[in-house]
Amino acid sequence: MGIQSSWVYLPKHQLTENRLSLSSPEQDNSAERGGIVSELIYGDNQAVINHILLPLLRQSGNEARWLLWVSPHKKLSRQWLIRSGLPLDKIVQLNRINSITTVDAMEKALASGNYSVVLGWLPTLLARDTVRLQSAAQKGNALAFIMRPQNVNKGANGTESQSNLLKIHSIYYH
């Protein structure tokens, strides 16, 4: 299987027209929006959060927007946030919320455009909920991470076995 490229050379006046139409405010630029929804499955003894997620959160903390943690029945540790180098003044946490309304809260936060990253600890989502979150992330140009602790499985010999799973959904990798 090969990659084919084709170049089309347009006369200079057509290039100018195309440039003007691309910057036209009434044109829908949905293809340029960068919102995504990814699922991160992690184990408590794995440093995946530190190596993958924290650099992204630190970088997003430099934006003018907020970071939202939707974590039902779990409270963020202030000491952990400080040690991790995350900006305390840009983090919002919802922790007294049940998992049924967590998807709704994430959807509203993503669509608002006020949050650069929204992390939510959720059970497996229905396809329609994933579509709702994806649409909201694109609308608000935000990143959503569905955080899920890894299940520990008992092996045949009674020992605990874990598989390293990291699902990061992208249109570029499948």
Structure description:
With 174 residues, the protein is α/β, with parallel strands linked by helices. The chain has five helices and seven strands, in the order αβαβαβαβαβββ. Strands 1-5-4-2-3 form a five-stranded parallel sheet, sandwiched between helices. Strands 6-7 form a two-stranded antiparallel sheet. Mean pLDDT is 74; it is low at 1-32 and 154-174. Interacts with FtsZ. Belongs to the SulA family. Keywords: Cell cycle, Cell division, DNA damage, Septation, SOS response. Residues 109-115 are annotated as: FtsZ binding.
Here the CATH topology equals Rossmann fold
Just give the CATH class.
Alpha Beta
Q: What share of the residues does DSSP label as strand, in percent?
A: 15-25%
Question: How are strands sequenced across the largest beta sheet?
Answer: 1-5-4-2-3
Q: How far apart, in Å, are the first and last alpha carbons?
A: 17 Å
Q: What profile does the largest beta sheet have?
A: 5 strands, parallel
Number of helices: 5
What is the CATH homologous superfamily assignment? P-loop containing nucleotide triphosphate hydrolases
Order of helices and strands: HEHEHEHEHEEE
- Quantity of strands, as a count: 7
Class by alpha and beta content? alpha/beta
Organism: Photorhabdus khanii subsp. guanajuatensis
Region (Lon protease binding): 167-174
Region (FtsZ binding): 109-115
Family: Belongs to the SulA family.
